[in-house]
Amino acid sequence: MSTLLEVSGVSVSFDGFRAINNLSIQIGEPELRAIIGPNGAGKTTFMDIITGKTRPDTGRIIWGDQNISLLGMSESQIAMAGIGRKFQKPTVFEDQTVRANLAMALRNPRGPFSVLFDQQTRAGADRIAEIAAEIGLTDSLARTSGALSHGQKQWLEIGMLLAQDPRLLLVDEPAAGMTSQERAHTTDLLKRAAKTRAVVVVEHDMEFVRRLDCKVTVLHEGSVLAEGSLDHVTANQTVIDVYLGR
Amino acid sequence: MNSFFLRNPSTLWFLMGLGLFTIGVTILSEAGIGFLSTSFIKILGKTLCLCLIAVAMDVVWGYCGILSLGHFAFFGIGGYAVGMWLMYARTEGIVLDSLAAQTIPPTPQEISDAIGNQIFGVVGSSEFPLVWAFADSLFLQLLMVVLVPGLLALVFGWLAFRSRVTGVYLSILTQAMTLALSLYLFQNDSGLRGNNGLSGLQNIPGFETTPQATISLAFFYASALALALGYVLFAWVVSGKMGSVIKAIRDNESRVRFLGYHVESYKLLVFTLTAIIAGIAGALYYPQAGIINPAEIAPIASIYLAVWVAIGGRGRLYGAVIGAAFVSLLSSWFTGGGAPAINLGFYTVNWTDWWLVLLGLSFVAVTLFFPKGIGGLFDYLVRKP
Hints:
Shape of chain B: globular
Strand order of the largest sheet of chain B: 1-2
Strand order of the largest sheet of chain A: 6-7-8-3-9-10
Number of strands of chain A: 10
CATH topology of chain A: Rossmann fold
Radius of gyration of chain A: 18 Å
Largest interface: A-B, 30 and 23 residues
Structural class of chain B: mainly alpha
Order of helices and strands of chain B: HHHHHHHEHHHHEHHEEHH
Oligomer: heterodimer
Largest sheet of chain A: 6 strands, mixed
Distance between the termini of chain B: 24 Å
Mean pLDDT of chain A: 89
């Protein structure tokens, strides 16, 4: 397992409030990592910083084998470098079919002219079918994605991430609002994805994290409070005080 | 290409409808049984040009979510560009005719001065401004029809989209752009004859002896052809993956960024392409209108354009065509005295004054109760799987 993403000494404040405070995290490849923490611990801001939505005040973010800095790259450049993100609220394009959603995410040239003259290829169609099977939406490919259930939308979004073929997947609360059956399916999806790439899951639900069975990082007030297996961090007295005890 | 029409049956229906309409108008025109007057043919031809800019507006607003309230500026620029050649070439013809009687042949300078006097006399000048440098060349002026709106849209769009100006702020910026342009053109020293604008555009140089009935029909055909080509072009752009991406930008711009698309380039492409088509539509419109002046590109014109598209139905190209045709024809009927005044006893509803109120109310009603517009009615006819 080699280091894929190295976040070191990153801080960011909003109007004097330190959302992220000297945060350092390393993610390997392949790896499945869960990030937990109380509300306001900076979990979402952490993802915003990595994906280029928020610029940190200080610190370094080093990516990949060539040790490129992600600071100063635009959202679309970071996405093309191989970082995919799934939002807390499922954000699929509800007006369009499941197939169109997946086709947009496929790893193809992203320039406007190559998209304008895009030809649907056999390979692309096969890849879409493959992903649809993986996320259990084979029968829904022609449906408008707005008509999907909440859980199906979450899977579609994970499918769009897979179609991007990123090296790092950032997944924000994938199990929110899912039935226990849907959760089991989601866990399988993430675990399978983490076999070949890095997957970082932000989650509140401890049961879900337990099922992921991976290394856990606890965030608190913008920095790392504890790191290790779930049993290890839940035994930590500080973690119990700030997070679990409440 | 076959599969494109198979996947977009509405485009085929539209082209068939437009073709039938063109044949029908030809039969009813003075070339046929003479039921339709030449001036009405011109109204129909102009309406087709308005339909074309409405289709462009639908792509930029209905599909890509950019509520541009400045696209009529591009329309007007197209009109000015072609109008400059029309006016120059016609005045040149008249001047040469009148100077031919002289015993000493006129020098090129004398000819140029005489043309300048004719064109710019109304604004107290006779010098040719720099913008008229290519006015003697039809080819170059036609190039301007495409280049000037395209470049203006490219620069404006690049500045606006790069700064991530979106939503109502962008709309205000586009309004400011068209207002600034119109105010500039209102000035006498703008080089485009101030508020007089360019006139006599219905007289096509080289066709002085051709009756207006024939010319109007020719422009009607040209407008129909331009609408057909523009419609097919935009139908192709919004189908397939490009359409997918620009609709996605409309619905959730930042999500598209995280998919790795450079949203600004897409907006710029759509904004510029639609501006160019708007310029072409304007270049066909004003020779039929006969006159263009800065009032044509006042901000209100671009707002009407948005109203047409909203009433016709955003996000479907035929909706924009229906909206533009329906509202603009109705508008000329109401304001042209076609609608009878209603006498309420204590007050007479005079439609030339009250039409705008009616239009405003129907805009509000459509927005509130029929967000899909008139075009949405087709959904009841065609059942979707």
